[in-house]
Amino acid sequence: MNVVIGVADCYISTDTSNVLVTYALGSCIAVAIYDPIARVGGLLHFMLPEAPAGAAQSGKSPYMFADSGIPMMFREAYEKGAQKRRLRVRVAGGAQIMDEHGVFNIGQRNCLAMKKIFWKAGVLVHAEETGGKIARTMRFEMASGRIFLRSPEGPAEREL
């Protein structure tokens, strides 16, 4: 069953029949995690590097931001039986879209924030396709743990 993960959303699953998909990764980043032993996987689609003061009180999803969404995603996976040492982490996105002159550099800032969080937590990224100027779609097959990317500008779907 396809499960669509929207912008500022996350989904953790133990159901091997699920295929997790997130679309239109421009400056946003998708983080996919998978524990092949516990068969726990998840997909996060975050928009911005850090939550502004008062974001939680304003009702904004913690998954909108790298600094709150990534730790929350990992905690939820651990609660379902995943173990940090077994996790396979793959990421995509962080492109420079609709910012031709690099005024905001949201994609680059998202990548740096994510890498800083992973570094502090001792998390290794096993595969990555970030940056550039292309949008991406990520598809995560829970049965196999395989991840595929597709871009409108590129050839057919490719494995990450």
Descriptive terms for the model:
alpha+beta; 60s Ribosomal Protein L30, Chain: A; single chain; 160 residues; 32% strand; 10 strands
Explain this structure to me?
- The protein has one domain (2-159): 60s Ribosomal Protein L30, Chain: A, CATH 3.30.1330.200.
- 19% of the residues lie in helices and 32% in strands.
- It contains two helices and ten strands.
- It has helices spanning 66-79, 106-121; strands at 2-4, 9-13, 19-25, 29-35, 40-46, 88-93, 127-130, 136-141, 146-150, 158-159.
- The longest helix is centred in the C-terminal third of the chain and has 16 residues, at 106-121.
- The radius of gyration is 15 Å and the shape is globular.
- The mean pLDDT is 93.
Which term fits the overall shape?
A: globular
Q: Return the CATH class.
A: Alpha Beta
Structural category is alpha+beta
Distance between the termini: 21 Å
Rounded Rg: 15 Å
CATH fold label = 60s Ribosomal Protein L30, Chain: A
Describe the secondary structure blueprint for this structure:
Layout: E1 2-4, E2 9-13, E3 19-25, E4 29-35, E5 40-46, H1 66-79, E6 88-93, H2 106-121, E7 127-130, E8 136-141, E9 146-150, E10 158-159
Parallel strand pairs: 1-3, 6-7
Antiparallel strand pairs: 2-5, 3-8, 4-5, 4-6, 8-9, 9-10
In short:
With 160 residues, the protein is an alpha+beta fold. The protein has helices at 66-79, 106-121; strands at 2-4, 9-13, 19-25, 29-35, 40-46, 88-93, 127-130, 136-141, 146-150, 158-159.
